[in-house]
Each structure stands twice: as structure tokens, then as C-alpha cells.
């Protein structure tokens, strides 16, 4: 596909014509690429990422579906990995939104350049992606780099996604689909980076096959016990907390720094701009478990549960 792109002088329009396409519930085009609904604007970056990315064994990648807790896990990972560089009270997180500290492969690095120079980054390099495990470059999946995947209750994720895009797309002409129709598309797997069941299963199976390479986390578990989650993440990335760090309360300080209340109330996250008309504050809405109950019916929840039971039953994943 990259050759096709290159043959056509970078004209991804021509490649797009060969793919099935859909408009998502808030009016943005997506194309079905290697079995996943890829927002069309990320097609080129995905292809370049697949072809050109050169992993280092020390790389750490945060993977997630959008609205599953990406911002939070970026903050946690950044703090854990860089704790020897920055004391907590001088953390860049105090003045910088987590999305500016950990960039996405498809939305930033390979979006701005076909072959970005990633060699000058601090080590270990931290990246993020919403792409499914199945479409990651072989170079990455065959390397020793680590992947942290965060899963979130799909109903909460769906509502979080909806609220985010209703807030950040107010000025477009497209009338967003009503929640019932958007939910129907979601249940059919027609949503950005979906189908969700394939996305989750890809990382889940990889975590079973290579537990030292892929860590499968749940938003709800991190929320209930951020300290144990920070310990788990630090061990997984090969940077366990020392006894001395534990004694002086560093783990608690990191979890406090990255907590919803703290992050939401930092000036940079109250007033800063993420990109275009998207404000940093849009990434900090409620941060609760179970908010879906205020927006979706029990019947909708049951429909989704049935899909999950059907798709996940064989692999031992209880969600
Ligand atoms: P809600 O819309 O339910 O509040 P993402 O970072 O993947 O875009 O996900 C955004 C969701 O994570 C939003 O959920 C947001 O409030 C929540 N979130 C952001 N930072 C958080 C934090 N530090 N702790 C818990 N949840 C957080």
C-alpha cells in the first residue's frame, strides 16, 4: 500500500478509492484498512509508520482506544519513566499537557512527516497509538519494546467519546447522529480504530502470549488502586520503584500528580489549547466510572454486553 501511495506521488486519495469508506457519527470520514476503521486523515501516517518505523528495544508504547484513559496513562508513564530526571515538584506535567509530552505515532510523528527523525528523543522513548495491535508494524511487534494497553468500560468510553466530540466539533455543519444511531454504529464495530472487540482482543492475546512485552490494564483498576497500578507499570517497563523511593512516598506523589483532580485543575489544562479549537480542558471531563448510566438505557448496555460475551467468551477475558 505504501508503494501505491508512493507511485501515486503521495496521492492517498487514489488509495482511499480502493478502500471501503464510512462517515462516522460526527461526520468524519473513515476507511477500512486491514480490517480496522481508520480515520481517513491517519491513513497516510499509518502506512508510513508501518513501513518506516525503526523501534528500539527500550521503546515504550501506550496503546488504547480513544477515550479509554490515554491522557492519564501518558501522565503516569511519563512520570514513572522520567522520575530520575525531574523531581515531582518540577515535573513538566505541571506546566504541559500530557499529550505534548508523549506523541502519537499516527496523529503526530508520522502525520507531520513521512519519515520523522525519532533518534534524538530521550531514552526510553515514549510513544502512543490508537491503532490496533494487528496493524502495528512488524518491526515493532517483533522487537523487545514494551506496550501498555489501557482498556475502559466500553459504555463509559462511548459516552466520553461522544461528549468530547460534541464539545470539540460545535462549529461544523454536520448534524451529529443521535445517540441511538451512533451507538448502533458502535455496536457494529463502525467507529474510529474499531471494531472494538478486535482491538481489545489483539492486545489481550498479545499480552497472554508475551506478558513481559504487553501489559493489559483496565481504567477501572487504575482508578480503584492507582498506587498498585503505578508499581505494576514501573515493574513492567523495567524500572521498579526502590525501597527507598517507596519509603519516601514517591509512588503516592506520582499517583497524586497524575490524578484527575490535580491534572484537571492545573492552569495549563484549564486554559491551554491542544490543537486548533480543541482545548486541553476537553480531556478532563468527569473521570468517573459508570457515567454511562446517565446517558444510555439498560437495554443498550445489555446489547453491548451480549456482543462482548459472544466475542470474548473463548479467550478468558471478562469485561
Ligand atoms: P470522561 O469523559 O468519562 O470524563 P482519553 O485520555 O483517552 O482521551 O480519555 C479521556 C477520559 O479520561 C475522560 O473521561 C477524562 O475525564 C478521563 N481522564 C482524563 N484524565 C484522567 C485522570 N487523570 N484520571 C482519571 N480519568 C481521567
What does this structure look like?
The protein has 16 helices and ten strands. By secondary structure, the chain is of the alpha/beta class. α3 (43-52) packs across α5 (105-112) and α11 (226-236) crosses α13. The chain is globular. 38% of the residues are buried. The model has no long low-confidence stretch (mean pLDDT 94). Bound molecules: adenosine-3'-5'-diphosphate (A3P). Residues 64, 66-72, 156, 160, 163, 258-260, 263, 283-287, 291 line the site of adenosine-3'-5'-diphosphate.
Key terms for this structure?
319 residues; globular; 3-stranded antiparallel sheet; 5-stranded parallel sheet; alpha/beta
Inertia-based shape: globular
| Cα separation of the termini | 35 Å
Write out the distinct hetero groups bound to the structure.
adenosine-3'-5'-diphosphate
Count of discrete alpha- or pi-helical segments spanning 4 or more residues: 16
- The number of strands is 10
Mean pLDDT: 94
Q: Report the structural category.
A: alpha/beta
Strand order, sheet with most strands: 5-6-4-7-8
Biggest sheet layout: 5 strands, parallel
Q: Helix share of residues? A: 40-55%
Kindly estimate the percentage of residues that lie in beta strands according to DSSP: 5-15%
Write the element-wise H/E pattern from the N-terminal end onward. Answer: HHEEEHEHEHEHEHHHEHHHHHHEEH
Keywords: Transferase
Protein name: Sulfotransferase
Family: Belongs to the sulfotransferase 1 family.
GO molecular function, one term: sulfotransferase activity
Amino acid at each position: 500500500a505504501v508503494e501505491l501511495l508512493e507511485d501515486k506521488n503521495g496521492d492517498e486519495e487514489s488509495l482511499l478509492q480502493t478502500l471501503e469508506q464510512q462517515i462516522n457519527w460526527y461526520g468524519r470520514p473513515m476507511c477500512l484498512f486491514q480490517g480496522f476503521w481508520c480515520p481517513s486523515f491517519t491513513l497516510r501516517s499509518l502506512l508510513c509508520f508501518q513501513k518506516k518505523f525503526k523501534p528500539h528495544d527500550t521503546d515504550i508504547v501506550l496503546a488504547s482506544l480513544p477515550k479509554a484513559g490515554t491522557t492519564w496513562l501518558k501522565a503516569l508513564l511519563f512520570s514513572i519513566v522520567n522520575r530520575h530526571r525531574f523531581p515531582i515538584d518540577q515535573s513538566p506535567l505541571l506546566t504541559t499537557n500530557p499529550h505534548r509530552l508523549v506523541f502519537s505515532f499516527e496523529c503526530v510523528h508520522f502525520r507531520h512527516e513521512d519519515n520523522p527523525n525519532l533518534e534524538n528523543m530521550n531514552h526510553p522513548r515514549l510513544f502512543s497509538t490508537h491503532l490496533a495491535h494487528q496493524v502495528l508494524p512488524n518491526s515493532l511487534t517483533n522487537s523487545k519494546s514494551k506496550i501498555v494497553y489501557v482498556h475502559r468500560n466500553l459504555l463509559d468510553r462511548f459516552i466520553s467519546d461522544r461528549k468530547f466530540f460534541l464539545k470539540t466539533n460545535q462549529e461544523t455543519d454536520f448534524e451529529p447522529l443521535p445517540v441511538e444511531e451512533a451507538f448502533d454504529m458502535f455496536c457494529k464495530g463502525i467507529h474510529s480504530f474499531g471494531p472494538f472487540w478486535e482491538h481489545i482482543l489483539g492486545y489481550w492475546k498479545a499480552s497472554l502470549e508475551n506478558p513481559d512485552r504487553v501489559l493489559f490494564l483496565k481504567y477501572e483498576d487504575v482508578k480503584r488502586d492507582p498506587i498498585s497500578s503505578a508499581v505494576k507499570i514501573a515493574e513492567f517497563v523495567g524500572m521498579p520503584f526502590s525501597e527507598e523511593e517507596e519509603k519516601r512516598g514517591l509512588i503516592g506523589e506520582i499517583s497524586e500528580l497524575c490524578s484527575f483532580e490535580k491534572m484537571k485543575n492545573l492552569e495549563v489544562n484549564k486554559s491551554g489549547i491542544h490543537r486548533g479549537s480543541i482545548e486541553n480542558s476537553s480531556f478532563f471531563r468527569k473521570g468517573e466510572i459508570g457515567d454511562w448510566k446517565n446517558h444510555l438505557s439498560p437495554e443498550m448496555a445489555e446489547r453491548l454486553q451480549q456482543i462482548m460475551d459472544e466475542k470474548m467468551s473463548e479467550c478468558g477475558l471478562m469485561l
